[in-house]
Amino acid sequence: MLFSSYVFIFAFLPVTLIGFYILKAYKFYTSAKVFLALASLFFYGYFKVEYIFILAFSTITNYFLASWILRKDHGEGYKLLCLGITFNLILLGVFKYTDFFLENFNLFSKLINLDFNIPLPHILLPLGISFFTFQKIAFLVDCYKKVNIDELSKKKKIDFIDFCLFVSFFPQLIAGPIVHHKEMMPQFHSLLNKNNSLVNWELMAKGLFIFSIGFFKKIFIADNFAVWANAGFKVVQDGSFLNIFEAWVTSLSYTFQLYFDFSGYCDMAIGLALFFGITLPSNFNSPYKALNIADFWRRWHITLGRFLKDYLYIPLGGNRAGKIINLRNLFIVAFVSGVWHGSGWGFVIWGILHALAMVSHRIYSFYIDGKKFLNSKIYKFLAWFITFNFINITWIFFRSENLTGAINLLKSMFGIVWVELPHKFYKAPDVLKTIGGNDKTIGFFIVAFILCLVFKNSIDKTQNLKINYKSAIFTAFLIFVALTTLIYAPYVEFIYFNF
Question: What is the pLDDT of residue 464?
Fold first, then answer.
């Protein structure tokens, strides 16, 4: 059940909202939490019923581990923490990486003439397992360190219903953001407080506003770019090549598809949470405006970067143990980010490339004070141009289903292979024929660049929203366009559902 589907918008969401607020109105606060948690499980199980059992097993196991860690002393707690982290990583590894490891093991065995040829089990990959695994690991670490859990530290007790809701809250269950206990539980307690009003209409209005923006981004922008990106990648993955214009349009189409797809999801998740009076942390902040790779990662998937910084980079020593160790830590964090996204050599290469970029930028910052040049428009443009094109090129490995496709697309982009251009190469329908491009494609690129580089992001707009007839008309227009587009648009899942 996608956020951008009719069944979600006209069935699941209204029923969940009505049920939750009826229970709250009659002061059945515990029942309201249970109802919301069960609705979230239904939402998750709607994709595949089997997912519920995996999520439930993980949740119950982590609940008991966290409860024991909270009550134990430092030494015993540390053993339980190691057990908990190991359990979560094994669970993630089994479901996400088994086929990848076995496939490469079989390949290696052939190289040394053993040829084990172990059958690939093709284990079901539960949606969102990468997200809720990291969220639970963070919670276990916080319980051990007694940080970010002030109320739990005093009580030495974790409420099971609260924990289930913290883990399964449907707006952030499938693709984040990766939230902390301290961000969510105080809000749930405050929300279900008899002294508060039944409905916060301001949050409702802001939620509808940002939801409409995300809905429009996903259906009208991202899914249109998906058509050209998918067509181009299919050609190169099948072993053929594109002309240079088609190749660049293919790579840029995916670059913008991913941007508006993930940005749209983040907006819709924040909007849905606001419908229930809950504020989720920002997870996306105009990353294509970044002037360097470090700035990009501070803007893209913010809560993943926060997790890796707090629970990997800093424990490894951060920047406190000298320059060499600092560079090592940066490389490890960026590499882990790549592998976290998926099981394939494309993700490994993508992670390594970003790791090398992070290391290069840090070395640059060691010896050159870039701030002296920041007032220069030429410097800013060059910095943005290099950063954006690096990101665009590395997304190719992120998207391509095989390395052959990625290499073929790069060869096409940089003219290493020559594909004859049509006679009227200056006309979009002719030059982009293989990927189904036309004049509309050029228009979408112009709009996408303007939206990414000129406009304020949706979080800023929502925070400063003036609730009046203009904002109401704008919201209604976006929803109308998205809903009508959805009638004939192909079914396209959010990209981050695959991670």
Answer: 87
CA distances to 226, 259, 382, 479 from 363, in Å: 37, 28, 18, 47
CA distances from 57 to 28, 60, 332 (A): 27, 5, 30
Same domain, 95 and 219: no
| Whether residues 274 and 172 fall in one domain | no
Domain boundary among the residues 142, 173, 198 is at 198
Shared-domain flag, residues 191 and 273: no
DSSP assignment of 464-475 equals: T---SHHHHHHH
Instruction: Please give the Cα distance from 150 to 499 (Å, whole number).
Output: 32
| Cross-strand partners of 284 | 300
Average confidence (pLDDT) over 184-191: 81
91 shares its domain with 216? no
**Same domain (yes/no): 459, 414:** yes
Give the number of domains in the chain.
Answer: 2
**Active-site residue, selected from the candidate residues 180, 181, 301, 341:** 341
pLDDT tens sequence across 198-216: 888 899 999 999 999 999 9
Q: Which of 58, 34, 62, 63 is nearest to 158 (CA)?
A: 63
Q: What span, in angstroms and rounded, lies between the C-alpha atoms of 474 and 306? A: 33
145, 180, 198 — which closes off a domain?
198
Q: What amino acid occupies position 340? A: W
Residue 293 falls within a domain, yes or no? no
Q: At residue 74, does pLDDT exceed 80?
A: no
307, 332 contact by CB (below 8 A): no
pLDDT digits (tens, 9 = 90+) for 336-393: 998 898 888 999 999 999 999 999 999 888 777 555 556 678 888 999 999 999 999 9
Structural domain containing residue 277: 204-284+369-498
**CA–CA dist 237, 23 (Å, integer):** 53
Q: Has residue 224 been placed in a domain? A: yes
Number of CB atoms found within 10 A of residue 25's CB: 11
Higher per-residue confidence, 191 vs 12: 12
Q: Which amino acid is at 229?
A: A
Which residues, listed in sequence order, are joined to residue 300 by a DSSP beta bridge?
A: 284
Helix axes 345-367, 377-399, angle to 10 degrees: 160
Distance from C-alpha of 387 to C-alpha of 379, rounded to nearest angstrom: 12
The answer to whether 81 and 89 have CB atoms below 8 angstroms apart is no
User: What span, in angstroms and rounded, lies between the C-alpha atoms of 477 and 462?
Assistant: 16
Judge if 78 and 171 occupy the same domain: yes
Whether residue 89 is found in the same domain as residue 152: yes
pLDDT tens digits, 81-129: 999 999 999 999 999 998 888 888 888 887 777 777 888 888 888 888 8
Q: Are residues 393 and 459 in the same domain?
A: yes
Which residues lie closer than 8 Å to 317 by C-beta, 6 or more apart?
Answer: 325, 326, 329
Is 341 an active-site residue? Answer: yes
Which is higher by pLDDT, 491 or 286?
286
